[in-house]
Amino acid sequence: MQDTDARGSSPAFLRPQNGSSHKSSGYVPGRIAPLRPPPPSQSHAAAEFTSARQEARTRLPSLPVDQHRRQAEASRHKNTLICFAVSSLSLFVALGIFLGIASKYAPDENCPDQNPRLKNWSPGKDPEKRVFIKKGDLFRLNSDATVHSIVIQDGGLLVFDDDKEGSKNITLRTRFILIKDGGMLHVGAEKCRYKSKATIILYGKSNEGADVPEFGKKFIGVGPEGTLELHGHQKLSWTLLSKTLYFSGLAYGHYTFKKNFSRGLNVRVIDQDTAEVLEVLKFDTHEFSEESLKLQNLLKNGSPGRIIAIAVGDSAAKNLLEETRVTIQNLLGSKFVRGLSYRQAWAFVGVIGGGNSSCNESVRNYENHSTGGKALAQKEFFTVDGQKFVVRAYSEWNDGVPISGFEVEAVGGVILNLLDDVSSWEPGDRIVVASTDYSMYQTEEFTLLPCPECTKHQVKVKENPQFPHIGEVIDGMDMRAEVGVLTRNILIKGETENTCYREKECQFFNYDTFGGHIKIFKNFTSVHLSYVELKQMGQQQIGSYPVHFHLCGDVDEKGGYSFKTYLEGLSIHHCFSRCVTVHGTNGLLIKDTIGYDTLGHCFFTEDGIEQRNTLFHNLGLVTKPGTLLPTDRNSSMCISIRDKVYGSYVPVPATDCMAVSTFWISHPNNHLINNAAAGSQDAGIWYLFHKVATGDSHSLAIETKSELTPLGIFYNNRVHSNFKVMYYLIKKI
What we know:
Layout: H1 44-58, H2 65-105, E1 119-121, E2 125-133, E3 138-141, E4 145-152, E5 157-160, E6 170-174, E7 176-179, E8 184-187, E9 198-202, E10 219-222, E11 227-231, E12 238-240, E13 255-260, E14 264-270, E15 277-283, H3 289-301, E16 307-313, H4 322-332, E17 345-351, E18 360-364, E19 375-382, E20 388-398, E21 401-410, E22 414-417, E23 430-433, E24 444-449, E25 458-461, E26 473-474, E27 477-478, E28 482-485, E29 490-494, H5 503-506, E30 517-520, E31 526-530, E32 533-535, E33 547-554, E34 566-568, E35 571-573, E36 580-586, E37 589-591, E38 594-599, E39 603-605, E40 614-616, E41 619-624, H6 635-640, H7 653-656, E42 661-665, E43 671-673, E44 676-677, E45 683-689, E46 714-715, E47 718-719, E48 730-732
Parallel strand pairs: 1-3, 2-4, 3-5, 4-6, 4-7, 5-8, 6-9, 7-10, 8-11, 9-29, 10-30, 11-31, 29-32, 30-33, 31-34, 32-35, 33-36, 34-37, 35-38, 36-39, 37-40, 38-41, 39-42, 40-43, 41-44, 42-45, 43-46, 44-47, 45-48
Antiparallel strand pairs: 12-28, 13-21, 14-15, 14-16, 16-17, 17-18, 19-20, 20-21, 22-25, 23-24, 23-28, 24-25, 26-27
Catalytic activity: Random hydrolysis of (1->4)-linkages between N-acetyl-beta-D-glucosamine and D-glucuronate residues in hyaluronate
GO cellular component, one term: plasma membrane
Protein name: hyaluronoglucosaminidase
């Protein structure tokens, strides 16, 4: 028999059968023995191949037996190594595929909502339900809910559900959320940002129910050992215009004209590159044939590409020469001018040399002192900057009164050119563009539109600007307007009434100022807020602000926190009492945060003992007067309100009040870097240094030693559009 190896091939040598010393015929020691004929089952072709291989082997030169054995063993060893390598490679490939599939579906340990210990939680909508989340309660909120209140304590955990597609849009409505004694609230994480839309609505009126001690009403509160982690989708917070944004979106503004009894052909010549109205003309072709010739010469000598808009006032046909009609037909492409008749309303918009394809026109017949509506012609064009605009002309008779007019305005949105990459801003986002005038009230809000033609440094807005906003450096002075995005995918909002109902505030405000607030106390475990939107937050009472760190002491490494406490990328807008209050708190980082349209000092250090806090690249604008402190108040509030006024002293508005500031810094050992104060009723940045602590810290008898303390970093801050310009005042009291 023929012996075979593991793969079924023939060996190089034939072994004796059954250990016998019998040698096959033709066997010569030391030489290759001829192979036996193949079994009958083999095909003829295979047999011929085997015979050929056999014959070839008989021709090989003789080799020693040991050498043949070594070669055979080396061959088998080589084959074994190849088999092992192939098997190992297959194993690793299979393992890689398995791990890839497993990792796709495995929970991400950085994402709080993927904790396998969490239980789905849907409390429903019951405004009387008081929820206590305590030890052993690890809840994942996965649907909209309304409850009276939520207390998270003793190791309880509440997490907002999320998914990779960002489709878990959840709204939680409650009077308050209190987090303490090991309780935790998570919406996203720094390494796993929330992708869906999460909304927390804080509801209730000031006269409903009892206050929670130390926190009040309508709040998210963090007590000792509480954890609050809110991390929304990361986006550029604010940037600058890189090109001037013009009033109405056009460099020369929009144009509107309307007049009665303007007889003849009213004509406007418009530059297609800039949308500027170059000439305003009227040709009385009803009365004078010479006027017809003037119009003919204007068109023949006009630059090709110029936009021509024409509207009949009263009547224009009587002395409109045939040659002029032909010129209008040939140069502008009009189909109706040749048949224009007495008191017929005609409106036309076209381009010199453009022909019929580049024009639009309309006619209406005169009957019984009326044309039954407007003859309206309109056509859209683009400026060299890519801004779309429309030119309209109209003509009509209405109850015996001839009316004609023109409009030139931007349409389809206005494109803003920005300094930084704003591709993280999305259609539907709300943005704010700062005033570059003396008045902060030229600040404007816009809604973003889809803009496939925009670069990553451009956005398109729905509304037409009502004011110009400079986007240039002029004579070495950076005059570029700040532009911030207000929208975030995590929203905390105070629910308010339609009108003001608190008598104290209603004498100064015609709207409800009782919003929600976030208040953090000392010895919290962890507080980090990033890319969260706060709207209608704050209350016109001491201690209730959109974000308030209350007597927290050191919140950085010095206070034992391995991960520094910070606020980053917040959008605080349309709020009722400050933006961020740092009260008896040191080492806090406030970064890339916007405070817009708020009452009272915006970024506020309170008692004069706050140190080592860093305000980096924040934007404050439209900081309005509030009622809390004399320095928050305007002149009328200053005289009317006695709170915080010493004894029977009568405040003098010019010196005791009217100091509301976007940045109010009460100790020199704080750092202001790359911030913008872009519009306050009074001051942009105000330093006011106390000899002794004020407010809640006064009883501690802490000497601030501000006069002996070096000023912290003050670098590259911008201030403009404030009533008192940049009131950079250093004062000791």
